[in-house]
């Protein structure tokens, strides 16, 4: 067993800084070739994982869950009570999913101030802005300023609930169903749902009703 | 640790890039890093909390200026060296000079379809009874710790209300340093006005998931 010593790792980081190749792409190539030679990585498996997160696992999975919740009040109730159990049938493999609902009075905004926690298995790879200092620093302190940059302007009467993902619970926002979509199929409803609306950096989806109809 | 990663509430970082194209990876090498991270064999002393801590320990200038997935390369490289599986020279050259004893063959590509929906649980039912209940008023501990923790600086010393109890979850502060134990985990709601002088008059709240040892009764 090796040690989990912070000072030692800090020293290693400095050593690496002075010795690794100058470009990210070159650093990645060196790491992969080393791991292949060490027998720790099969490059075909790397390809397969890239394909899964490019083609298969992405925001359309979250959109299906949202659409089901809009169409089926019982499902919505169990989704809000226990996201993990409710999505079992979707086969998405999520241990601790917490779905939070936007209403006329409440708007939810998800962030991870300490690193980059994000509901990967329902929304796919997080956008780069979600992982950058500006969003992480400001979402908890100036959520209205951040939302304004995304084009979302909220009256003071709407309470913002910022969700800082500090543990292994992963937050997904259930946006409000836009009016004029009564009787729509789940498939149609899912096409209304954007990635940002499930992070909370978009709120009103009614402008999409005309596009999807 | 009071590191550069603890960004909540810091000022001066400018605007958010709201026009970023919506695609999983913007560069080929970014996808490569993601794939390597999913495909690679974990060494026995590695875990998610240790990975997060090793990322926090990146030199502060690099932490703020290097692209996200480039930081992952740096983090895995440091973990390999720390565990004795590689030297700095090996990581720099990409050429292996030694083998790591006792490793199983790497994950085969056929395993990905099953692995992609694997459940990893962090709760540990019945290992610790919660001392706090929904509605209790708490104060987050005023001081941080030197190692890994998930108590951000911006809530330390502030009053909040227990919003939900989640049973016992693995404590990252211990796990990151090799000790697997669980503690009750709570969602705690803080009024924006309790956290920020500039939030005066706003009814907004910030919710965090915090372990019991981060909290004391107010």
Structural key phrases:
A: about 210 residues; mainly alpha; two-stranded parallel sheet; B: alpha+beta; 5-stranded antiparallel sheet; globular
Q: State the end-to-end distance of chain A.
A: 59 Å
Described by the principal axes of the CA atoms, the overall outline of chain A is: globular
* Estimated structural class of chain B: alpha+beta
- Poorly predicted regions of chain A are none
Work out the radius of gyration of chain A.
20 Å
Unreliably modeled segments of chain B: none
Number of E strands of chain B:
5
Give me the side-by-side strand order of the main sheet of chain B.
4-3-2-1-5
Q: Percentage of helical residues of chain A?
A: 40-55%
Succession of helices and strands of chain A: HHHHHHEEHHHHEEHHH
What does this structure look like?
Chain A has helices at 6-19, 24-37, 43-56, 59-71, 73-81, 83-86, 120-123, 128-131, 133-138, 143-149, 186-192, 195-199, 209-212, and strands at residues 97-101, 106-111, 159-164, 170-174. In chain A, α4 crosses α5 (73-81) and α4 crosses α11 (186-192). Chain A is mainly α and 213 residues long. Chain A has 13 helices and four strands. By secondary structure, chain B is an alpha+beta fold. Chain B starts with 27 loop residues before the first helix and ends with a strand. In chain B, 40% of the residues are buried. The mean pLDDT of chain B is 96. Classes of the chains: A mainly alpha (213), B alpha+beta (218). Chains A and B meet through α1, α2, α3, α8 and α9 of A and α1, α2, α4, α5 and β2 of B. β3 (159-164) of chain A pairs parallel with β4 of chain B.
